[in-house]
Design goal:
Number of strands: 3
Order of helices and strands: HEEEH
Helix content: 40-55%
Structural class: alpha+beta
Shape: elongated
Number of domains: 1
Strand content: 15-25%
């Protein structure tokens, strides 16, 4: 996969997450880590699927509290 294709793929994944997790700032750093920030909360992982799972955990806990 070319660098351009990888960038488009990452952008698509970020768009999906931004729709799913409104209120979070999302991105991918130069170190390859995916990250999400909301207020004082920071989630950082190497896997986008792990990021999604951790954000689900956080939002579920916040909603039930």
């Amino acid at each position: 996969m070319s660098i351009e294709q990888t960038a488009w793929h990452d952008a698509d994944r970020l768009l999906e997450l931004s729709v799913e997790f409104a209120g979070w700032r999302l991105g991918r750093g130069g170190s390859g880590h995916w990250w999400a920030v909301r207020g004082n909360e920071l989630v950082r992982t190497l896997s986008i699927e792990e990021l999604r799972a951790r954000l689900h955990e956080i939002t579920t806990v916040k909603q039930s509290a």
